[in-house]
């Protein structure tokens, strides 16, 4: 038995290594194209590494990683950026693979690889671009969004554990690693914090009335430690906002509130674009609503997705940067987490489906078709990023 387990582990490791290498090559190839595209995010951020001006950036973690390869290992920036980004994407893939293997041991290496490509449904006569207007759980063109993803996955699942363990006596050391990771994630990109903390607060507020029946004392005593995890990050984001976000008066500054003001510049209809982006998670929500209500990670993921979708449509940067749509990033991070947890739970349902239960089979097979449609569009998107000369988003 032990020999068979070792063989299986070695086989799984080999499969994961192959998929990791493929993802590394694809990521590096896309970044190698984007780095030479004028005004693309990779071009702008790589130039800041080359010029050494990234230290003045509010979230320089990706830049620092590329700078290490550039300065210490003498790798030119045009190669260091693709290599480092590819490695980060492999880390993201490995984390996804770990959680799928832990919660749903159904071809985890393949499912994790597929989730690294998943995107919105592409309807050419509606959305000329797969990405623009819809967004995506996979963002090929933005290095800082990629950089924060490993932290977002780990912090999300640590928070799920904290929520499941509420009421248990735990020392502060139990929460310290999450606090440190949350703080570091701010140096990668504050977008995860910007969306996740309001979503967590909303989740806890719902719990106050559903789980705790309005008992504020018990609710506070069992939740305040989780809130303290994000206190250092909250202090840091205040500094980031005051020092970096509001200083560029030439481009405007500050946050505006108006429904659809920025997002509507990229899509003919906000709700149709949302449907194309969230179609699989929405269908999963409808079919397995009761299951979601009893599962902490699913509930938190859906609340995270909802709050960040509202943020993206309600908030915008004042001045010339309004069209940058910088409040969409949190939604894309939330979407990637939502795809992970719904995929895990869906394939558990698919594996356990009774072949004699026709309604159950119809549900699972319909969802599988939708899942595969999203995946096909994701492969098309990656192919476009690789092979269409003037496509940078």
Summarize, please.
With 393 residues, this protein is an all-alpha fold. It contains 15 helices and two strands.
Spell out the blueprint of helices and strands.
Layout: H1 2-34, H2 41-51, H3 61-71, H4 77-103, H5 108-115, H6 143-164, H7 176-188, H8 191-210, H9 216-229, H10 231-245, E1 255-257, H11 270-287, H12 289-293, H13 296-314, E2 315-317, H14 329-352, H15 358-387
Antiparallel strand pairs: 1-2
Give a description of the structure:
With 393 residues, this protein is an all-alpha fold. It has one domain (2-387). The protein has helices spanning 2-34, 41-51, 61-71, 77-103, 108-115, 143-164, 176-188, 191-210, 216-229, 231-245, 270-287, 289-293, 296-314, 329-352, 358-387, and strands at 255-257, 315-317. A two-stranded antiparallel ribbon has the order 1-2. It is globular and about 55 Å long. The model has no long low-confidence stretch (mean pLDDT 89).
Helix/strand structural class: mainly alpha
Main sheet: which strands, in order across?
1-2
Percentage of residues in helical conformation: 55-70%
Run of helices and strands: HHHHHHHHHHEHHHEHH
Parts with pLDDT < 50 across at least 5 consecutive residues: none
Cα radius of gyration in angstroms = 21 Å
Tally of individual helices: 15
Main attributes of the structure:
393 residues; mainly alpha; 15 helices; 69% helix; 2% strand
